[in-house]
Amino acid sequence: MPWIIPPMPNGSLAPSGRGGHCMSSVGSRLIVFGGSDRVPLSYDDLWVLDTAEEHMQWTRISPLSAPGCQILPRSGATLTAIGDLLYLYGGQEPLTEFRFGDIKVLDTRTWTWSNVEVQGQVPPPRHSHAAGVLAGQCLLVYGGSGYSDTLSDVWVFNAQQRSWRQALVTGTSPPGREMHSATMVGPTTMLVFGGRAGDGRVLSDAALLEAADMRWSLIEPTPFSRCAHTGVAVPSSTAPSTSSSIQGEQQQQGPASSMDVLIYGGFSGDAVEGDVIKIDGKTLDVELLQRSPREADKIAGTVPPARFAHGAAPVQYRSPQGHQSLAMAIFGGVTPAEDMQDVAFWVVSN
After folding, report:
1. Are 131 and 77 in contact (CB under 8 A)?
2. What is the model's pLDDT at position 320?
3. CA dist 35 → 157, 166, 187, 284 (Å)
4. What local confidence, expressed as pLDDT, does residue 256 receive?
């Protein structure tokens, strides 16, 4: 399962270096929105990279806006795909620390942003939360940073009814957190890992949220403290998959027991990391697949540098030989010295 760092055309357009951006996938297209640099200057730009093209290059999209819709720059938001629609939720303006509580939708067939007029109650504004697709038609949102504290609440947004509801979750709850990953490992199962607690601790636990009956079913410690990392669901190496389609931040393949989560990068509390870690979507067993890059890797340019606050998504990667492979794509992120703008692929299957 090697890293592949694709050559990009010299002088071609590309997103500027950034962290805290949203990243999702629709088919073979990686879509990046917003984020901020270290100034911090926040962005509202929209970029697409088609990984099915023989020579990949970024395209900046100039989206349309429906009447009354304004998309403001933000970082720490989520961008979640339901079919061809991308739902943008939350985020913050880092200079003013204004938290967004709105939800917008981007139609990737026409590249048009629209407001979502929500019925009833809404969640508190937040950033650095996590979201996934529940049962193919809802957003499942967990945690994040609110105005007064770090959140531990669970909310469900029904995209058809355009309404939110707060879930009452049973079982032993993990502590509230921000900058965590929460990855769907089945139609109704979310795997939460890491993040930063309200007291500043970088967390190392993994937990399963069974949204079918709204209960925390399993919480396990791991050896890896991480925040501002990413998690991508991939088929388990020990179970057969039933489909190869990709939707949004999750590849929908088979039952929960057939999915693992790849964790990449982040901050451990002591250092910026570049490890690739696999968490079993059923047992929460953890395996270190690759350590942070060594100096020889950095010189050779064969492994991406360690980073945090990057973006990641599953996508079908086309090799120079024309072979299609499932891959975890990463873009951007930050280090103590640099705002990054590179792209790399961790190939999962051929």
Report:
1. no
2. 74
3. 23, 27, 28, 30
4. 40
In 3-state terms, what secondary structure has residue 258? helix
Predicted confidence at residue 350, as pLDDT, reads 56
Give the phi and the psi of residue 19 in degrees, each rounded to 5.
-140, 170
Q: CA separation (Å) from 186 to 25, 220, 303? A: 18, 19, 30
Alpha-carbon span 110 to 39, nearest angstrom:
33
Backbone angles phi, psi at 300, to 5 degrees: -75, -20
Q: For 162-217, how does the pLDDT look when each residue is reduced to its tens digit (9 = 90+)?
A: 999 999 999 999 999 999 999 999 999 999 999 999 999 999 999 999 999 999 99
How many CB atoms lie under 10 A from the CB of residue 12? 11
* Measured distance CA(139)–CA(131) in Å, rounded: 6
Rounded-to-integer distance, Cα 215 and Cα 302, Å: 42
Environment class of residue 165 by beta-carbon count within 10 Å: exposed (0-12), middle (13-18) or buried (19+)? middle
Q: What pLDDT sits at residue 324?
A: 85
The helix or strand, by DSSP H or E, that contains position 297, with its residue range, turns out to be helix 295-300
317 half-sphere exposure, CB direction, 13 A CA radius? 24
Inter-residue contact 69 to 141 (CB < 8 Å): no
The pTM of the full predicted model, rounded to 2 decimals, is: 0.93
Mean pLDDT, contiguous 10-residue spans, the chain (350 residues): 83 93 96 97 97 91 98 98 97 97 97 95 97 97 97 97 97 96 97 98 98 96 98 78 38 55 98 97 96 72 92 90 89 96 88
Strands 78-82 and 64-65, sheet pairing:
unpaired
**Angle CA(28)–CA(192)–CA(136) in degrees, nearest 5?**
45
Residue 154 has which token pair? 């669970």
Specify the pairing of strand 181-186 against strand 163-166: unpaired
Radius of gyration of the chain (CA): 18
Helix (H) or strand (E) holding 341: strand 339-349
Name the residue with tokens 């355009």.
Answer: 162
Residue pointed to by tokens 């999962």? 348
Whole-number Å distance between alpha carbons of 58 and 123: 34
